[in-house]
Hints:
Low-confidence stretches: 1-5, 94-106, 260-267
Number of helices: 15
Strand content: 15-25%
Radius of gyration: 24 Å
CATH class of the domain at 41-180: Mainly Beta
Bound molecules: FE2/S2 (inorganic) cluster, fe (ii) ion
Strand order of the largest sheet: 13-14-15-16-17-18-12-19
Structural class: alpha+beta
CATH topology of the domain at 41-180: Rieske Iron-sulfur Protein
Amino acid sequence: MNKPGKIAAEDLSEPLRYGVEAFIGRAYAEAEPARLWAKVWQQAGRVEELRAVGDYITYNIAHDSILIVRDAPDSLKAFHNVCPHRGRRLVGNNTGGGPKTVAQDEGAHSARGHALKFGCNYHAWTFGVDGAARYIPDAEDWQGALDSVCTSLSPVQVDTWGGWIWINMDPGAGPLREYLEPVATMLDPFEFERMRYRLRLWGIFDCNWKVALEAFLEPYHVQGTHPQLIKYGDFYSFSRALGLHGQTGFDSKAHRADGTAADTSVHRAAGDGDPRHTIAAMQREYWETIGASTTETLVECAQRLPLDLPEGTPAAEVHRFWLDSARRRDAERGVIWPEISDAQMAAAGLALSIFPNMNLIPGPTFSLYYRVRPWGTDPDKCLFEAVALDRFAEGEEPETEWTFLEQDLSAWPHVIAQDISNMVEVQRGYKSQGFAGCLPNPWQERKVTNLHRGLARYMGTGAPVPL
Ligand code: FES
Ligand SMILES: [Fe+2]
């Protein structure tokens, strides 16, 4: 039975339970915009999307829309995407005679374009990239009462880290860097700011955004959801809280027994078999069934391991040879890896979550990340994204757009489809009158539990309680 009122230990080490209100509660979903989304830093896009002054994107979250624009070669501004006159959404869907946007074509994801002035399609008030009104028809009718504050676009905090743009609607929010720690320092060596989009997929799913996000927060599900990957090794993982954020990493049961989290690498020479072959086969499988979480160079170099190394080469040596050859091969085509020490690589672990709605797999030349958002305030719908970043030689970065995929398992890369296959069924299960709340694994799923502890801080409800 739940024991409400008892506070979970700081490290979440004891068996805990949390309820389903955060997933299916209508009142909860309707409270999220003001209590959560208005307060947290959110990843809203990539800096590379805004190259020239006047380049803009929109980022929509619940019922809010944020307009982010490059207002100077070295600066970005963000505003609530709403006209201060009588509240028309300024940029994006239904632009009428205005510039055609991605949002119009795709129906929903976001708008992207270039403009040095933003004219409202309702009464033609017009704003500069600094958010100030440039043109107000018949302004003298207000008899001098209009000032620059009430006629300007409402500002939103914006900053960058890792090549991502981050926004915060709370004018009193502390600095982004502080919010992201300790994750930012752990990931700085990866130089994500030098990576670029390779693939960006999105869809609208019939589940709560937390259900979709949580499908990727722990490898505990590999045996049930991705049984084909088990042959490559043991996915036993630690999972821990890093403040609001969280981390997983490959682990062993011996570590669990003495209560320490093992420092491990994102790649691990897995299984009892010949590591030359397991790495080669696993990389091939990742490429074919995820299409991310590795790169073409890493996959190709892995295929050469059985040819280049003698049988019996120890796993650690195979692993090192593989990464060294991929680094050299990339350098030949102008793709320079950052210097990441073994200790830094190990400290980053397998995947990091950034509160509340992003989870990221870091690699020396890639990242695969997921971002999930509510769809309006419907607790049963979300906007899901899977994104692959890669390093490219200068001038060879591909132009990419958001690609919409139906909630049809055959549309998504196989492994991600396997994860998606759980989502709607979990959303259904949470509505069962026979379900008494979640029983997260106290060692391998703390990242999930920690998400609910963090959410409860903002929402005032839903904290995990001891079993
Ligand atoms: S609502 Fe924008 S000009 Fe009137
Ligand atoms: Fe998965």
